[in-house]
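in:
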């Protein structure tokens, strides 16, 4: 029996996009569906500090950060399907820990294990896309995946809120267990192995080290990975404190899931636009324009906060729409640019890029979100600083002047 004989017929383009988006969505689903439950978790598990609830988000990302670099080499050596199934198994173990937790530290540990598991499907999905596509076509596919993937954060907070009406916050983790099983069955029955045995690399420190040397010696890969890391830091900081900002500071309360879903729609819409524009204007130009846009609107937000005070809700939502829309444009492009020169070591590259970006993002986001003071100003300042750093890194990576992309 061959590794692909479990698939009765080749997977079609639309189903491929949907499946890759589902595997990638393990991360978003695991984060977004619990956002409405953070206050309940805080009350039930008696957190010492109200900001400690943010650790259920940032520690999940931290678990991903330290494990992604392992899945790449494993999938390069044993195949893409192996990496997916291993990650889903670990994810289910972490979910079980969350379900059994009776203290916040135990829940956070379970979230770390969940993050370790979720890294597998996410990283291997990137490697699978690189196995099949390259260049602007890869950026287009990444944008289409992002467009489908963004259905998750659109509905996940609403789904989490719905679960809370009939169950406790633990019911959300039962749903996550079901989601992981669904992803496993779909992958096992429909996803073909995209890495042939002849293209596999030996698993060991030597081959991995050689692949990593190839990655770190590539200016474009390093620069785009770091740019993505800093830009995503600000997004993650908002994500982990979004319930406090929108639900508490602006008093949206029960409207928070719907408002958050609106932000996700903006990201998905921007990703769809990027999929159409990237073939014409290129990844670098769109990424630079998006980053500049976030820097400008965040500067205005910070200045308003300093001079007048906390901006009204309408302007905060406008600022967030610009920032979230840029996520839909920038993330797929920067990831594709970083992966483009690394096709020969796609698995290790996907793992290294994912680990570095997640680790840097988790550390910086924890610091930014920890500055929450009842207003959105610390997050806006984080967006401003991180976007400027990301823009500088992008210029360094491509040796292009900002004026040439405007």
């Amino acid at each position: 029996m061959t590794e692909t004989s479990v698939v009765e017929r080749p997977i079609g383009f639309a189903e491929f996009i949907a499946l890759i988006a589902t595997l990638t969505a393990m991360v978003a689903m695991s984060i977004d569906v619990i956002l409405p439950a953070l206050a309940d978790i805080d009350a039930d598990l008696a957190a010492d500090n109200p900001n400690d609830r943010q650790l259920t988000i940032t520690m999940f990302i931290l678990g991903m950060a330290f494990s992604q670099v392992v899945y790449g080499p494993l999938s390069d050596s044993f195949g893409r399907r192996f990496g997916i199934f291993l990650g889903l198994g670990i994810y289910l173990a972490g979910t079980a820990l969350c379900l059994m937790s009776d203290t916040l530290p135990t829940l956070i540990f379970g979230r770390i294990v969940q993050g370790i598991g979720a890294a597998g499907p996410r990283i291997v999905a990137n490697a699978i896309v690189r196995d099949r596509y390259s260049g602007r076509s890869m950026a287009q596919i990444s944008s289409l995946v992002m467009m489908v993937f963004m259905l998750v954060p659109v509905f996940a907070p609403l789904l989490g809120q719905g679960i809370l009406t009939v169950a406790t916050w633990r019911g959300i983790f039962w749903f996550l267990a079901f989601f992981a099983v669904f992803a496993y069955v779909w992958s096992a029955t429909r996803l073909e192995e995209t890495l042939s045995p002849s293209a596999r690399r030996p698993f060991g420190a030597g081959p991995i080290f050689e692949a990593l040397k190839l990655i770190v010696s590539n200016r474009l890969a390093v620069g785009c990975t770091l740019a993505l890391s800093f830009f995503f830091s600000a997004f993650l900081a908002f994500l982990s404190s979004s319930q406090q900002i929108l639900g508490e500071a602006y008093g949206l309360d029960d409207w928070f899931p719907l408002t958050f879903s609106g932000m996700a729609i903006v990201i998905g819409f921007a990703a769809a636009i990027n999929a159409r524009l990237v073939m014409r204007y290129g990844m670098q130009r769109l990424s630079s324009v998006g980053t500049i846009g976030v820097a400008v609107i965040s500067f205005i937000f910070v200045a308003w906060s300093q001079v007048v005070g906390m901006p009204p809700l309408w302007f905060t939502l406008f600022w967030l729409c610009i920032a979230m829309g840029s996520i839909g444009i920038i993330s797929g492009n920067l990831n594709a640019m970083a992966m483009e020169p690394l096709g020969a070591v796609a698995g290790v590259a996907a793992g290294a890029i994912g680990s570095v970006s997640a680790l840097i993002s988790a550390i910086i986001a924890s610091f930014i979100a920890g500055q929450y003071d009842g207003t959105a100003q610390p997050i806006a300042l984080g967006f401003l600083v991180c976007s400027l750093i990301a823009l500088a890194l992008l210029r360094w990576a491509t040796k292009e002047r900002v004026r040439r992309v405007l």
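note: Residues 1-5, 400-406 have pLDDT under 50 and may be disordered.
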